[in-house]
Design a protein that fits this description.
This protein has eleven helices and nine strands. By secondary structure, it is α+β, with helices and mostly antiparallel strands. The radius of gyration is 25 Å and the shape is extended.
Length: about 280
C-alpha cells in the first residue's frame, strides 16, 4: 500500500530498503527493530502531507473500492492524493454474500461516510469488478442493489473499471484485520504545557525517580501507580507528586485557560481532584 503512494513519499526507496530486502529470494524473514522502525515510519508517512491531502472542492473526487472475504476498503482521492481511508471488516453473515454484493456494500458505506463531499459535483467510482459497471443499467433484484441505487439516486457519478493488480490501496484496506477503527484520517493533537513541566520535574523529585525505575520494569505496581506515555498515574489519575511548578501550571490550565473558564473555587477544586492525584 505504501508503494502505491511512493511518488508522494520523499526518499521512499531509501526508507523502505530494509523491508524490500526481506522480500529477496533466499533472505530469511527476520523482523528486527530496524524493520519495525521503518514500518512505523511508512505508516506515519501515509497520514501526513504530502501523502494525505486536504480536500479541495473544485477538484473532482475519486473513490477506489475493493471487497474481500475479510472486509471492505475504500480510498477517497483527488488528483491521486488520498484524502481519507475507509476499512471495515465483514461480519459472519456478510462474508457469505456474493462478490458483487460485497462490492456494492463497499460503495454504500463509502457514500454514507463521504456524502457531504460527493454531493458538490460529479465523482468517479473505481472498482475491480466489471459487472459493477452496469449497476444503474441492471434490474435491481437484491436488497443491496436496491439500496445502492437509492443511495446514489441524487448523486452524479461514473463507474470505471480498475484492474485488480493496480488497485493496491483499496485492496490492502479490505484485508485489514478486524478492529474498532473503521476510518482513518490525519490526526492533530496538542500537548498541554503542564505536561512538559510535569515530566521535567521528575528529574528533581527522588520519589518520582524511584517510581520511574520501578515502573519501567513493570508498568503497574501494587501501590496503585502506573506509567502511561511517560506520565506517572495513581489509581488512574495523573500524579503530580511534589512538583510545585507543574502544580501551578495545572491550576492555571484548569482555572484561567479557555477550558477552565474561570470557574469558582469549588468547581476548580473538584475538576482537579477528579483528574490529578
Amino acid at each position: 500500500m505504501t508503494g502505491y503512494y511512493r511518488r508522494f513519499i520523499k526518499h521512499y526507496g531509501l526508507i523502505s530498503k530494509p523491508l524490500t530486502h526481506l522480500l529477496k529470494k533466499g533472505v530469511p524473514f527476520q523482523w528486527t527493530s530496524q524493520v519495525q522502525q521503518v514500518f512505523q515510519l511508512l505508516k506515519s508517512a501515509l497520514l501526513s502531507t504530502p501523502v494525505l491531502a486536504i480536500l479541495d472542492f473544485p477538484k473532482p473526487f475519486v473513490m477506489e473500492t475493493d471487497a474481500s472475504d475479510l472486509g471492505i476498503g475504500v480510498v477517497l482521492m483527488q488528483e491521486g492524493h488520498p484524502i481519507s481511508y475507509l476499512s471495515q471488516p465483514l461480519c459472519a453473515r456478510n462474508t457469505a454474500l456474493s462478490t458483487y454484493e460485497k462490492e456494492c456494500m463497499a460503495v454504500l458505506l463509502a457514500v454514507d461516510k463521504w456524502r457531504p463531499y460527493l454531493m458538490s459535483q460529479e465523482f468517479i467510482i473505481r472498482t475491480d469488478l466489471r459487472s459493477l459497471l452496469f449497476l444503474t443499467d441492471q434490474k435491481a433484484t437484491t436488497k443491496l442493489q436496491k439500496k445502492a441505487l437509492l443511495k446514489l439516486m441524487n448523486l452524479q457519478f461514473k463507474i470505471q473499471y480498475k484492474q485488480g493488480s493496480t488497485n493496491a490501496a483499496a485492496d490492502a484496506l479490505s484485508r485489514c484485520p478486524a478492529s474498532n477503527v473503521s476510518e482513518l484520517h490525519a490526526i492533530s493533537a496538542c500537548t498541554p504545557s503542564w505536561m512538559s513541566h510535569l515530566q521535567e520535574g521528575y528529574a528533581d523529585d527522588p520519589e518520582a525517580q524511584q517510581l520511574l525505575v520501578e515502573l519501567s520494569i513493570s508498568p503497574t505496581n501494587d501501590k496503585g501507580f502506573s506509567l502511561y506515555n511517560d506520565i506517572i498515574k495513581y489509581k488512574g489519575r495523573v500524579w503530580a507528586g511534589h512538583n510545585s511548578l507543574a502544580q501551578s501550571h495545572i491550576l492555571q490550565a484548569l482555572h484561567a485557560s479557555g477550558i477552565g473558564g474561570h470557574s469558582g473555587i469549588q468547581a476548580t477544586y473538584q475538576r482537579i481532584k477528579a483528574l490529578f492525584a
